[in-house]
Each structure stands twice: as structure tokens, then as C-alpha cells.
Structure prediction request, 190 residues.
Amino acid sequence: MSTQPHSGARARSYTVDDPETALKYAIQHIEGDRAQIVEGVIQQVPPSWDHEKAADLVREQIGPVLHRLGCMAGSGNLDLPGTSNWYVPDLAVVPRDLAKGSDALLPDQTLLIVEVTSQSNGDTDRIVKRRRYAEFGAPLYLVVDRQERSCTLYAEPGGLGYTNVNGPHPFGTPVRLPAPFDLELDTSEF
Prediction:
């Protein structure tokens, strides 16, 4: 059986004109665990229950604010056009209207992105994603660092990174989420 597309009885060669698009298309069609692309490397994203617990605790605390903002929180795909990056954040807050019918959103379309570190990818969340999220305009980026047992909130993104860093704060120290959230995040149960 051939894997190349056919047109009638005559086969055509299949060439990828845009490798970025082809890679991002392929990643969306991997069955089983979620997968993301970080700097051109495909990574499976099989979170543990402890990992999920931390993301869920953030979701519960911001839940009352989401309705007022017309937003939702989830772990949908984020595309970083012009790069070989396709992220699946642990949690992203996005306007409901943008999420409708979208396969992926852009970091600057979010209000908040939360990444919870794992032993295998902590540096990716702390370094690589922090740089890329700032470059692509994500207004707020919260790192829940389970290995360091701390939380850091990054704000005011720019091409050279975030210019406002709040933390790291040890678990148990409240972390203030600025407007439009205007709430203190309880980190004692992370």
C-alpha cells in the first residue's frame, strides 16, 4: 500500500513546501498521549496526577473570575508561528469566543498561561517556554515549579523576555495575579 496521495490512476510525488506546517499538522494527529513540539523536538505530554493536581488547584481558584471575564481555562494547543514550536500548556486562560472552533491559539491571545514542572521537563518550562511565551506576547506566565517547590509569575512580555518577575515564592506564599484577575493565588496545597 502506498502512502503517497494519488490523483486518478497517476501518482504524484508528495513534497512538503512548508516543513513547519507539516510538522505541526503531524503533531496534531498523534494518537494516544498529548504531544508538543519544543524547539523542533517532539515531546509526549503524559502528566502525573500530582502534576494535574497543581493545574487543577489554579483552575479552581481562578474559576469565579473566568465567567466575569468571558473566558475559559484549559490545556488547548498554542502555536508559535514561524518557529518549530507547538505547545500544550498545563493551563491557559483564553476568551471563550476565540476558543470556539480553534485548533490552536497564539500566546498573545491568552490572559494567563500556567506550566507545572515535571522532573523530565522542568528546564523547558523554566527557560525555553518562558523565553518563547514572552517573545510571542503571553501577558502572564505562571510557573508552578514542583521540583523547587516555588511559584514564579512573569509579566510584561517583550522580545528580550519578561520585564516583571514576581518570585520565586516558596509554596505556601500567596502569589498575586494582577488585572484582569485581581486575586491572590493560594499555593499552600501545591
Notes: The chain has one domain: 18-185. The CA atoms of residues 10 and 128 lie 46 Å apart.
